[in-house]
Amino acid sequence: MRFLFLLLLPLVALAQDDDYCFSQDTSRPQTRQFSSKTAYQIVKGSDIERQYLVPNCEPKKMWIFHRHGTRLPKKSMINKASRLAELRDLIVKNYKVLKTKPDKDPLCQTDLIALQMWKWNSSITGDMEEYLTAQGYDDLRGTAKLYQRYYPNVLPKEYNDTYYQFRHTDTQRTTESFKAFAEGLFGTVNSAHPVDIPKQDLLLRPYDYCQSYKDLNYKGEGSEFEKYHQSTVWKNNLVDISTRLGFQYTLEEEDIKLMYDICRYEQAWQVDRNSVWCGAFLPEQVTVFEYAEDLKYYYGSGYGFEEIERLNCRLVQDLLTHLSNPVSPHVVAHFGHSTGLLTLITALGIKKDGVKLRADNYLDLASRRWKSSLIDPFASNFVAVKYDCPQELDREKVVFFLNQDAVQLDWCNVGLCKWSDVLAKYKTISDADCGEYFCRSGATSSLASGVSMLATSLVALLVYLMH
Ligand SMILES: *[C@@H]1O[C@H](CO)[C@@H](O)[C@H](O)[C@H]1NC(C)=O
Ligand SMILES: *[C@@H]1O[C@H](CO)[C@@H](O)[C@H](O)[C@H]1NC(C)=O
Asked: What sections of the sequence does the record tag as coiled-coil (predicted)?
């Protein structure tokens, strides 16, 4: 008997070790796969130390597009806090009362106990929807400090509005993100201010003013996103997750999505802690979700439709104009949103795959370039640094950084691009009349009326001046 016990002991230990434990996993690969809800600190580049220095060249100017930092969810999700508490109780009941814990891949004991103790942070209420969080503020203050450390001459600690030009969209989270960034550069007490936000923000939100863009079918019937949702990969994933949580039926997709979302948010709100809800998913299950998100963004804000490459005509012109011109502003920084960042990356031909993402090539594209988690986490940022290289024939050079990692383009030399090549590459856009080019259907009616109102007032002004 005793002998048998000793014989079985290692087996028991082995079985316990085998249960995946999110709270004890030191690599936590799934936290790098949360698409646009990924924490910046987890996926940001770690090589800038080697990439920023260009021998015999001096950094001169900088152009930045920065997504806001980690935010709170929409009201619709905040209102589902009580459903999360119900799901928590159901899972615990499955394991402890109904004894429907699965034989294969159950939740480990630590993850289950952590889940049992989970509570919604009751100070997060519906009126704070999409607000920047404390971590979100730190994200932007952090990137500002980091870039200033590597480029102290381009980003001096003294602010003036000739040298620096800041602009953000009309939301709490981008306003606060701008303030955080300014605090990182100039300290807590500073006089940094943004330029006025126009009524029609065609520079930072062109996608709001283009009907043919809004009409693109990126996730509706017949879309690749929808097809993926009908696939066996997707359906089995929902079954596996439900079984793992002890359910003897398949949970509603809405419930699974809710648990997945709270996991992603909580992980981003407190990067150094584990979100209890992330324990509900195995890494490979998160990978299945990630591809759905990537499909959604590929067709909604990426290379899926050709017209998306045109949307940011004005923003690309803004980049080219400012960096071509030797005079101030020397630093231009825009604070916007996920769609803005992704469509900008797309306009520039960055992170483009040779093959289109589809529902059925999920496995072939496991190492695709288009990974929204790495391109567009919270606080994602695109930074172009212009260099002057007096010893070279082509004096003007540029390095593009995405999330503080030098962008590799095949027409550049390990991240270092000739400015003349940049101008040639984006000539179509720089020559375009953006008013016509940016949107196939032309601007939406609200814009058209805005323009005609502007025209009317200009005429009025002229008439007034002539008298
Ligand atoms: C709860 O949320 C508020 C508002 O976002 C935040 O200030 C606070 O730190 C959070 N508390 C905990 C324990 O996470
Ligand atoms: C603004 O700041 C820049 C960089 O520190 C400096 O070179 C320039 O002289 C300043 N301009 C004004 C008007 O203060």
From this structure: none
